[in-house]
């Protein structure tokens, strides 16, 4: 096996994945594009999520590292358990190639660049979009030899450490001006690993744009891409990329953009081109509730849309204002009616536990959910507990309300969704957790067929108990919740024991 010039890892999100993901690590596949086309580099992308599903083998990563003398290693991470897994991989890289820089990029390092670069296993932080900074890092290493802590003053958009360990903050980068110049390098993964058959149709995700014209104050967008900034592939490029995946048998495209309707004219052109090219792929996408007027709902339904996801957040107008949602609850009722009229299914997601939320707000949201289900039974409702992610305006609100953020990178590993009790400003914690779990189990029961065979009966039992709770607003004695948490704790304990092995300097840590 020949060596690689660049080795990237997309760490797993959980200790064990139960379902194959439908999204490849898009960020890494796009960063790799310029490395390959501009510099002719040989790139290895390892998606750790596929490991416990038996689709990739850790030995391949180990072999790749041992046989290579790369220009850098790269880790991509969101906030959450990916951080811990990213550190495990970084430790292995440091041991194998002590003088090769380890670069971290992605949402979390961008939102908290200083805390990330302070970690001894991180040499460079990519702040924001990665394509140009990582290309320039590769060029620098190629030109003057691979060395950790070498002078990187001339690379925009990074944080780095010099030979004395001083942290340097370079000026912000200018992102790639024309996104049409960037491709998703599907050739670096096996696309089949991400194609999932759901309801007899082959599904695959794609991302066609970046940013969002809205300003919801809990969303990473405001800090990552800049408030209200939206750009995307041209409609022609979107269609040609979809043609590519349709050739692999994909019949249903999941648009995983933050907000694909950010430029409505572009979206209409995509739908026109779909028609002109006689393409019949079906699709789902996120949309704002207020857009779903009669005419627009008809238009997307005629254009192949089958499912939309709506970040509804709250059934309380007061809370929506606090979140800068720029939307009102009426819009959700309108959306549910029009979606029913054109036979579209939808997922509404809700945030519980936002700073300042009262019990009254919480029950307003519950009532809204029940109303929407009555109007349109083809709606799923996902309840999330608000996670104060760094770098967002609502994070500052949470801190004002007494939230104590982790002081070190590792601290962000704990999955916030399990951390409701730690959110000091959340009143009625037990009630909120019980409602959230009931919501999760109900949704799982509805989507039972998407889970592994052995999980399905569990979802049926838990879902049935939750439906009874939901109907009668009875949330005491949450035994089913405790059982699931215990299962999670066992998995987490397995994970912790692995980390102890790593910390004890065991060379087989990655094996
Ligand atoms: C797909 C997706 C997922 C997938 C993950 C697979 C994947 N491929 O990322 C799944 C479904 C598993 C997932 C789960 C969750 N997600 Co998610 N997800 C996304 C989504 C929609 C797309 C990610 C993506 O591919 N983006 C497109 C690429 C091009 O952008 P990118 O990844 O940021 O990469 C660019 C740069 O960041 C950088 N870069 C990234 N990595 C690296 C590495 C190196 C070395 C370099 C040089 C550069 C670099 O360069 C890339 C190109 O410019 C984003 C929203 C978004 N549009 O980004 C949310 C998002 C990342 N998810 C988010 C959240 C909150 C979650 C969940 C907690 C949701 C939930 N409540 O369940 C969970 C749990 C995540 C966890 N860490 O445990 C938040 C992240 C907040 C945060 N602080 O991390 C986001 C931003 C959504 C949002 N609007 O809030 N998610
Ligand atoms: S509409 Fe969605 S993507 Fe846009 S800012 Fe609000 S939460 Fe973020």
Description of the structure:
The chain is an alpha/beta fold and 511 residues long. The chain has a domain at 6-176: Response regulator (Rossmann fold, 3-Layer(aba) Sandwich). Helix content is 40%, strand content 15%. It is built from 17 helices and 16 strands. The strands form three sheets. Strands 2-1-3-4-5-6-7 form a seven-stranded mixed β-sheet, with helices on both faces. α1 crosses α6 (131-144). The radius of gyration is 23 Å and the shape is globular. The protein starts with 5 loop residues before the first strand and ends in an 8-residue tail after the last helix. Mean pLDDT is 91; it is low at 501-511. The structure holds cobalamin and iron/sulfur cluster. Iron/sulfur cluster (SF4) binds at residues 212, 214-216, 219, 221, 258-259, 311.
Strand content: 15-25%
Total strands: the figure is: 16
Gap from first CA to last CA: 19 Å
Average pLDDT confidence is: 91
Rg calc: 23 Å
Q: Choose one word for the global shape.
A: globular
- Provide a count of the helices: 17
In CATH's first tier, which class of the domain at 6-176 applies?
A: Alpha Beta
How would you sum up the major sheet? 7 strands, mixed
Structural class by helix and strand composition: alpha/beta
Which residue ranges are poorly predicted, with pLDDT under 50 across at least 5 consecutive positions? 501-511
Strand numbers in spatial order across the main sheet: 2-1-3-4-5-6-7
- What molecules are bound to this protein? cobalamin, iron/sulfur cluster
Q: Please, what is the CATH homologous superfamily of the domain at 6-176? A: Response regulator
In the CATH hierarchy, the architecture of the domain at 6-176 is 3-Layer(aba) Sandwich
User: Fraction of residues in helices?
Assistant: 40-55%
- What is CATH's topology name of the domain at 6-176? Rossmann fold
């Amino acid at each position: 096996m020949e060596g690689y010039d660049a080795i990237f890892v997309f760490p797993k999100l959980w200790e064990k994945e139960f379902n194959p993901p439908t999204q490849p690590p898009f960020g890494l596949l796009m960063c790799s594009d310029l490395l390959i086309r501009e510099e002719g580099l040989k790139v290895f992308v390892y998606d750790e999520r596929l490991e416990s599903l038996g689709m990739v083998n850790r030995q391949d990563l180990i072999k790749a590292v041992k046989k290579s003398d790369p220009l850098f290693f790269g880790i991509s991470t969101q906030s959450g358990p990916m951080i811990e897994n990213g550190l495990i991989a970084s430790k292995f890289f440091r041991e194998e190639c002590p003088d090769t820089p380890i670069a971290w990029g992605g949402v979390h390092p961008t939102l908290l660049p200083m805390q990330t670069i302070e970690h001894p296993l991180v040499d460079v932080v990519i702040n924001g979009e990665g394509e140009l900074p990582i290309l320039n890092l590769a060029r620098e290493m190629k030109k003057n030899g691979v060395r950790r802590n070498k002078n990187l003053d001339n690379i925009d958009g990074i944080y780095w450490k010099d030979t004395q360990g001083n942290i340097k903050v370079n000026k912000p980068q200018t992102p790639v001006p024309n996104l049409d110049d960037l491709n998703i390098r599907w050739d670096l993964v096996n696309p089949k690993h991400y194609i999932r058959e759901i309801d007899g149709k082959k599904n695959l995700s794609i991302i066609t744009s970046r940013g969002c014209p809205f300003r919801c104050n809990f969303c990473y967008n405001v800090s990552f891409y800049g408030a209200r900034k939206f750009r995307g592939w041209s409609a022609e490029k979107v269609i040609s990329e979809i043609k590519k995946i349709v050739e692999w048998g994909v019949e249903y495209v999941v648009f995983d953009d933050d907000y694909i309707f950010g430029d409505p004219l572009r979206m209409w052109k995509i739908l026109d081109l779909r028609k002109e090219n006689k393409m019949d792929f079906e699709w789902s996408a996120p949309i704002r509730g207020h857009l779903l007027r009669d005419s627009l709902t008809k238009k997307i339904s005629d254009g192949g849309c089958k499912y939309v996801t709506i970040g509804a957040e709250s059934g309380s107008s007061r809370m929506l204002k606090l979140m800068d949602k720029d939307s009102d609850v009426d819009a959700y009722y309108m959306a549910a009616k029009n979606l029913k009229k054109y036979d579209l299914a939808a997922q509404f997601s809700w945030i519980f536990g936002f700073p300042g939320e009262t019990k009254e707000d919480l029950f307003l949201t519950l009532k809204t959910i029940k109303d929407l289900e009555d109007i349109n039974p083809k709606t799923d409702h996902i309840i999330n507990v608000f996670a104060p992610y760094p770098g967002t305006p609502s994070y500052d609100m949470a801190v004002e309300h007494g939230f104590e953020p982790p002081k070190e990178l590792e601290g962000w590993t704990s999955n916030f969704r399990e951390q409701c009790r730690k959110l000091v400003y959340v009143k009625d914690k037990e009630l909120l957790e019980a409602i959230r779990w009931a919501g999760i189990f109900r949704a799982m029961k509805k989507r039972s067929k998407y889970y592994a065979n052995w999980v399905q009966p569990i979802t049926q039992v838990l879902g049935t108990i939750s439906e009874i709770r939901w109907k009668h607003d009875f949330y005491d004695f949450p035994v089913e919740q405790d059982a699931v948490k215990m299962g999670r704790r066992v998995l987490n304990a397995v994970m912790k024991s692995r980390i102890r092995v790593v910390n004890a300097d065991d060379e087989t840590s990655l094996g």
